[in-house]
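General statements about sequence and structure are easier to judge against a single worked case. In the encoding step, the backbone of a single protein was reduced to a row of integers, each denoting a local shape. The record that follows shows the chain in one-letter code together with its fold in token form.
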Amino acid sequence: MVLFAVTLLTGCGAVQNQSTLPAAAPGSPSPVAPANTSSSPILGNVHGGQQPVTGAHVYLFAAGTTGYGAPSLSLLDPTQPGVLTDSTGSYILTDPSGNFGFGGDYTCTAGQQVYVLVTGGNPGLPNNAINPALALMSILGTCPAAPATFGDTVPFLFINEVSTVASAFALSGFMADATHLSSGPSTNAQQGLENAFLTVNNLVDSSSGTTRLQSIDANGDVPQAEINTLADMLVDCVNSDGTEACSDLFPNAVGLDGTLPTDTLTAALNIARNPGANPAALFGAGFPDSPYQPTLTAAPNDWSIALTFYADNMVGPYFPAIDSANNIWYSSNKNNAIGESDKNGLLLSPATGYTGGGISAPAQLAVDGANRIWVANRDGNSLSAFSNSGKPISPTTGYLAPGLNTPRGLAIDASGNVWITNTGFNSITEFIGIATPASTPISAGTHGQRP
């Protein structure tokens, strides 16, 4: 990653916050794990396109875990020098070059998911004017356990339109708005929240504010041109007084409930949640000079963003399933194997995949309450089972039944029955009580999806 050295100026005069973003509950959470109070500073910079943003409010929040729609938690200590407070929370200010820094003025709890919100500020306007529609964000990620600090793990944070688009899309399943980012209290829900934060890093290099070409582990493709095009849509509005320059963006970034945004972060969040709304009109709202390159050459069918992961053993993959550790399982139909990757798409299974147990042209997979993997074998006319470590449980023929014929689809009900669709017989086969039932779907809470 590229690192930048900056001159740190905080507390350089109050700027009235004209943002209309909903207020979060100010105040740090009560620690339930070793607290992380940093004296090693997190340095950062805020830019709108090529313009530094002066006098912007920079907030430090932790995502909540008490329920969807709950307020984020303000982490900055309002008693520290240079820290100011308004109805949104405690904040510091960017200097004339857009620089900011968090030092010993924040406390987070190990395991919290932490992000930075920026509102207002002057992106080069005359007479020290403030843009009330400017709202940008980026993530710091998981608060490390003491004695490590964010200053050690995230030495620099570049916040711009790219970081905002990446954050809004990856976190959209957990964000009600900029200051209400929260999961439910369950372990699965909090794991899903962590996965969503990790997805941001797969899309953007937070130290430079640039879109990645490949995922952070270099095992997947990132839609770089599309993310840059989305970022370019925000630039004109960010680098303005928030009125006329936002007139192409705000009316077309329609929320699922029909509401229109009044700031750039909400615009990005609306597009993430409603990607099929007005794609051509939004494409035309891009900044003429397109500071983020490369970009799309024509409007897409919609603005949904997808990562594509690869593995050597993924040949003819079918129907993935997700276990309780949020690892992804897939069938490799042409290799007569199943594969496993972690939540970032990094391969966990051997290069040849997991084999045996009667696997033959595997189709759909399912995971039961004991994290065992069940596989419908299209050519073998059988059902295979594997432990969560990839060891075959079923016999070398697989589990057989008279009605199995070219099975493809598979599901497990609450009684542990395995149901398989037979495309050869136009029928459904039920294996009675063979699996371990799960009280909640094992696949819940992954990659930003609500359980």
